[in-house]
Amino acid sequence: MTPDTDNQANIATPDNTPQLQAFRAIVESRRSVRRFTDTPIPDDVLADCLRLAMLAPNSSNLQPWEFYVIDNADSRKRAVKNCMNQNAAKTSARLIAVVARTDVWHDHAKQILREYPDTPVPKKVKDYYTKVVAMDFLRGPANVVSVAKWSAIQVVRRIKGPIKSPYYTFEDTKNWATNNTALAAENLMLALRAHGFDSCPMGGFDEPAMKRLLKLGDDHHIVMMIGAGERADNGVYNTQFRFDQTQFVHYV
Question: What pTM was estimated for this model as a whole?
Answer without folding.
Answer: 0.90
